[in-house]
């Protein structure tokens, strides 16, 4: 079985932006997301879920309730939020509903992940001057 880090790195993070669906993949470029972030004046975003805390399979009802709490927490902090899903290459794990939080700084993203008992997040950062981007998986706890 793959390690958790391998599983997270082998996941496509699909996000519903206003005019298109983009897919983030660790180590790959995502010009459409970069453009969207630049238009909003942001240089970072994070994909976070509250599904399956600590990678323990949880009921759909519990996952939906936890994600609703995460959404409320993100909105209370003023982040623009877009819906998405993490879809792993491993068919044993079903898609996990998630959110893209625009403009969130790494420490705040990791704090939310810890609050919602997530092992990791997908964090996307782009240098608006150079255009250099990076999507990576970062351990949260």
Care to describe what's here?
The chain is an alpha+beta fold. The protein has one domain (4-139). It has helices at 4-9, 31-40, 60-76, 106-115, and strands at 11-16, 21-24, 44-48, 80-88, 96-102, 120-126, 133-139. It has a seven-stranded antiparallel β-sheet, sandwiched between helices. The longest helix is centred in the middle third of the chain and has 17 residues, at 60-76. The chain starts with a helix and ends with a strand. The model has no long low-confidence stretch (mean pLDDT 90).
Which secondary structure elements does this structure contain, and how are they paired or packed?
Elements: H1 4-9, E1 11-16, E2 21-24, H2 31-40, E3 44-48, H3 60-76, E4 80-88, E5 96-102, H4 106-115, E6 120-126, E7 133-139
Antiparallel strand pairs: 1-2, 1-4, 3-5, 3-6, 4-5, 6-7
């Amino acid at each position: 079985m793959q390690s958790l880090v391998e599983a997270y790195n082998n996941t496509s993070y699909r996000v519903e932006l206003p005019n298109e669906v983009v897919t983030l993949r660790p180590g790959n470029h995502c010009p459409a997301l970069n453009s969207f972030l630049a238009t909003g004046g942001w240089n970072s975003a994070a994909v976070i879920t509250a599904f399956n805390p600590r990678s323990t399979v949880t009921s759909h009802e519990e996952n939906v309730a936890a994600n609703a709490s995460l959404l409320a927490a993100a909105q209370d902090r003023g982040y623009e939020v877009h819906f998405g899903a993490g879809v792993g290459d491993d068919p044993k794990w079903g898609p996990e509903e998630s959110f893209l939080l625009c403009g969130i700084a790494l420490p705040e993203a990791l704090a939310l992940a810890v609050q919602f008992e997530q092992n990791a997040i997908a964090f996307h950062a782009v240098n608006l001057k150079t255009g250099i981007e990076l999507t990576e998986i970062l351990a949260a706890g």
